[in-house]
Queue: 2 jobs
Job 1
Amino acid sequence: MSDTGVIPKIKKEAKGVEEQILKRKKPTLYFPIRSLANVRYLEKEGYFEIKGKKKERTLTVNTVKTFAQTLKMMALSKTLVETDDIATKREAYYVSKNWGDARFLEQEESDTVMDDVEALFEVNREQMGFVPEEKGGDVAGTLVVVDKDPNTGKAIRIDCTKFGSGAYSIPISVEDLKFETTAAFILVIETAGMFQRLVKHGYWKKANCILVSMGGVPTRACRRFIRRLADTKKIPVYVFVDGDPYGISNIYRTFKVGSGNAAHINEFFCVPQARFLGITPQDIIDYKLPTHPLKEVDVKRAKDAIKNDPFFKHHKPWAKAMEQLVTMGVRAEQQALAAHGLNYVMDTYLPEKIAHPDKFLP
Amino acid sequence: MAQAQLKMKLKKVPRKSPAVPASKKAGPPPSKPEPRKIVRLTAADLAEKQREISVSEFFTKNRHLLGFDSPAKALLTTVKEAVDNALDACEEAGILPDILIEIQAISETRYRVAVQDNGPGIVKAQIPKIFGQLLYGSKFHRLRQSRGQQGIGISAAGMYGQLTTGKPITVISRVGANKPAHKFDIQIDTRRNAPVVTADDEVEWKPEHGTRVEIEIEATYKKGRHSVDGYVEQTAMANPHAAIAYVAPDGERLTMERVAAELPKPPLEIKPHPHGVELGILLKMLHETKARNLRAFLSGEFSRVSPAVAEEIARGASLSPNMTPQKAAREQAEALYNAVQATKLMAPPSNVLSPIGEELLLTGLKKQVEARFYAATTRSPSVYRGNPFLVEAALAYGADSLPADEPITLLRFANRVPLLYQQSACAVTKSVIQTNWKSYGIQQSRGALPSGPIILMVHIASVWVPFTSESKESVASYPQIAKEIRLALQDVGRKLGIFIRRGLREEDAEKKRSYIEKYIPHIGIALQEILGIDDKRKEKVCATLKDTLERSRQL
């Protein structure tokens, strides 16, 4: 996972294309197929591994435009890495406006080509100099992050207990960070609202833990940050999300074992040691939570997960929990605990749950 | 029957009227009891009011049936009836028609229509009846492809003129170089349906033979496809052997050159086919025939009935082939009718029709509109209700003058006469809508005409075109006719489809060619950026790749 590998890979691929052309042959690029259908669940390692299926893109009359764009995107990546610069997806899209006829008309086109190139080299797009737009996630609690000053290279110690009612923001590149902590566990939270409540009332102090807010589906940086932290410090990771198919199958599953779209890099961007704290379908009953009915899309998502998602097919308790949710026909948000008092979540729910980590869903 | 029913009704009326509701009887009597007077009419009283209705009177009250329902349409119908007669007369006499149409504006609501031909002329004695009596003519009693059918048209136009302007119809006719020209002013006695000649002179007239008709009518003149202008243009398309000169009310002169140097093959007259005859007509024919016996009647008055077949029919009706047809009772006629329907007969002769022909259809279209593609088809004759008919279709596609996203221009013709009104009621329109144009690469919404830059011509020729009304504006949807129209449309549609698909393929190929030109340089630039190759090598890469791709495309 260092930057040095990318440029030789780009050059090797470009060289191959050039040679084929000069041999009067039509060059072909092979892209791994990025979907759930092309992953297998590795039980021991605990993540989705990409299977061998690849799609070919042969340079023909019909593909000449995309082919040119793919090569231009590779050239841009090479320049970024060489000059130690970065470009967001949006910026890369605007850079293409200088490419004449080969420019992208919509950002979706450039995003797709970028994802393809990333998968082609089986690297993380950050290694290619492309960075995501979105925030990595917020951190608060008993943790010191050791980063480097971007200009001097001097080590900087960031104490995550010293942000008051604010939080430390996970950077885009987390590979070189070092950690110091005595925390008992990491609590990963879906919503910023719940995170704020726990920060405001100093829950991390009381429970001796690190709080991380994902804000929906976790970014790659967020996943990688928690993975490295948990790996190096050997601390358990508990996930606290809404009790609905989206929270379970999209957020939690992506967090723990990766996604189909990023199948080629799941190995690094997953947190296999994560355990599901809540909200479970059983919690809805046990804690008498107010609910909303499942929407049609929720039911579809749940049934799809049970039927097609390798993670749910492997973990029977999860398939059962998902089926229970569909049978109940309801969903409950994290904030639903507020029905029993605003701080019920801190005073009762979390302590009760954390007392029995063995009961968490896998 | 109808009379009997009417009488029954009349009888009922007085019986019902005095009936007073029961509730009223119970209430206080009205202050001034005034019993309603019931006027009872005797059959004799009614008889005084019953009298013959003359055909002319009937049409005076029902002018819309003949196409005089609006002032704009009246002008068109008048021109149309006169031109129909002119063309028919020329063709029957074997003369290449030269037609002159002049419309003179007297005022904004009054026009004088003159139509002149170079036909054989009309003998003096016939002129008053032809123009001054409804249902008088040569065409009703025969089965032959012609424009006029009933002998109503021109006299109805004259009557309409007389009705709206009070002016008589003026006719000049000359039958040969050594004969004088006659000029008549004719009025119609609408009560008696008889001509009244108000002027009869010998005049100086230049043409050696021909006829000129002038009618003054109340009308309005409009431009456009449904107007006289459109009619003249379309008439020229369907009659490429005619030269037509047209002077519009605004003085504008339009000359349609003759495109075909020869007259079309003259249509032949045929006797009715037994399967197309109704019981009432059969009865009338039986009584009016000059044949001495049933066998001679059947084989002499109908087509496709040999003496042997006549005997077979007679046997089927349990009648003697030797019986006297004039004495046939209604029951016997009915038995005969049923036997005719049950007997297998040869289809009527179909070589009696005179189609425009694929070549002349194309010539007519090409003269009319400049387009990228033309197609035409003439179907073999077919039969409906014992009448032979045939369908022709032609289309022009991709003219710049036609809008690309609007419904196509559909031109309908029957026996070479353009049909301008009642498009939606016509069998032609229905068949065009029911044809799946999408499979030929033409847009079409459900239940609508297709859309595109297309002029579509459909011509139906028959010894008897089944119009839906006397104004002859749309053709009735007999299944056999609808089927033939559909087949003709599919034929030209297929030809068009091939052309359109070829065009799309070429467009596609052109696009791909430009793709190569556009994007290959960028592949070279990208490779140069990544690999740092020099310009010469970059050019070589581009040239080789271009060559490889173009070669693969041609394979």
Job 2
Amino acid sequence: MSPILEINSLQRAFKGRQVLQDITASAAQGDVIALLGKNGAGKTTLLETILGFALPEQGEVRLFGTLSTEIGANEKQRIGFVPQQDELLEQLSPCEHLELFRDFQPGWDQSLCERLCQSWDIPMAKRISALSVGQRQKLSIILALCHKPKLLILDEPVASLDPIARRQFLTELVNITADQQSVILFSSHIVTDMERVANKVWLLKDRQLVWQDELDTLKESVVKLHIDAAQPLPDQLPLPHLLRQQVQGNKATVTVKYWQSAEQTMIEQQLQAKIRVEHLNLEDLFLELHENQEQGCDDEL
Amino acid sequence: MTNFNRPSVFTQLFRLLTLRDMSIVWWTMIALFWLLGFVSTASSYAAHLILVFYYYLRLLPSIAALLTGSYGRLLFSHTASALIPFLLIALITLLGSLAVVQYTALAYSEAVVTLFCGHLILHAVFFSGNSHATGLIIFPIWAVMIHPQFFLQTALLAPAAQPSPMVIVFTLSLAATVFLLKSVNSRGKTRQPQPAATWRFSWRAIPKYQPSLGACFLFQYNAQPVIRLLVFSIACAVTPLLQSSVYFWLHSDWQWFPELDWKFLNDSVFIVPLLYWLIMVDSVIARTKAAWLYLPFNRQQLWYYYERHFVMQLLIFSLPLLVLLYLWQPHNPYFPLSSVLLLSKLLLITYLVLYFPRSSMVGFAVTFILYLSASYKVFLTPLNTQLYSALFLLTAALVLRHFALKRWQTRNYSPRTASQRRRHV
């Protein structure tokens, strides 16, 4: 199966400052990718470069096999995009805006549109300029979803949504992935939401994509070890792939990556300690993967 | 309900009259013209015009929203709420009566009664909270009041003072009075419908009749050539109308392209259309990011798409612009050359903005150059000067086009320049 999205050695810089460096990744049908990264990590830049808003300094991005800077009508009508700040036509009402899209988008799903408008309580007659940020965001999402895109890119789509709307939105994402076999790439800081729907994780750190794999693989790979030894532990534990460590006497809490359960017995013997393995959720993983940088621990991810 | 001593009705009336941010400025301006009205009758007319525009378009919607809303219930007693609309009507009737008496053949008492009844009916509509009805009323106000000879045509108000029409006016006023009292009294008992607070008189450009979704996002106006011609014609007619209005104000005589000593207005004859064009091109370019994913083109084709569009718009624009040039100076011996010069300026502005998209410094520079080069005196210069100017502008436009084309191949559409409206969730 050919990938819908391919990124090869992508580099972006702003006024001489490197923002993205050597990004290589791909996404195929059915992938729901959570793009994680701290504020200013370059998530929006990456998403906008993918969509062809700007040219990369080096490398290339291909959408449906076409260079992102060359995409035309054929590719664009298969893309749905929800920007961080909506780009709606403020002088129209939601009803008029949706009609406009329905008239121009060949694959428009009117029943989905009506269902979402009803369940999200979109005030159809009010002018868009008078809507709240949350209502505008909901409308942006409806506009991006209802033409059944094959590639859906969402930049902080749930930041302004209430918990009910967020849950409904996530359900819709799952349905779309199941029905249409699309690629969904979305960034958000509400990591618990991402964990519910994503099957892959892209982690941006230090201008690079330091993790791009299945979410389950990440969860199995990065674990927290609670070590309880019979005698005081050394300040620096001799463990491979150490991300973070906290040693207090004969107790220690360490985070390691590339964890394999077979290693547990060996380490227990080596340290003469009992080890309890804690599997982390995505939010904790995100924190652990970033905190290690501040503590200057271990190698690059 | 919280009980507290409410201020007197007159204090509250003053607060309502100064409800909006710029109210004091507007009232000072109205007062100034009104006082000048004792010296010059044209000033009375100006005072009344500003009063009607400001009061009905800005102040009254806010007052109606406050009085009929939940804050109104808390801040105003029933008596004050019932009294205030009538005090407001009395005030603007008294302020406007001077102009009406000066410009019409009506007696003072007739003028006051006619104005009072008219304002009473208008207030009833505003307080009804029906934004559509309010909107419908605003248009006749604009249409009638903007007519410079409104007050000179005494026949317009005189029939209203005749017995038969006055019976209708009095009946309507009586109904309006009953409605106003009823709506104010019932405000605490039942929930009022949403007042016309959200209604604003504004030009609502609807991006209809565009060939693609991307074009709707990009241009955001009605694409019909007739509508575009109308909008361009308005841009061209602004300054001449202003000149005529000023002349009328000073000399009580209506003239087309009058001889005025106001340099600023004389210079603005061609600057206003050119500035309108500059703003139009600039705002279209600023929307590239929003439109990019809906435009059926790739990067290479986008430039030519813009160029085609602006050339088409320029063709439409040139019609009222050249008419303006001709009407401004019908006996210009070099009219074809002046036309070329004027259109060259538009071309240069277009390519300048395309080469330096969304740059405030360049925008300032362009505006300055525009002011200097678009001065009407250029079109009065000898043949050679106009010819060389046109050639220079065309060459500069061509050079800029070459570089702008290259720049657009690699342009980043991402940076946001327009401030995004953010509201509370």
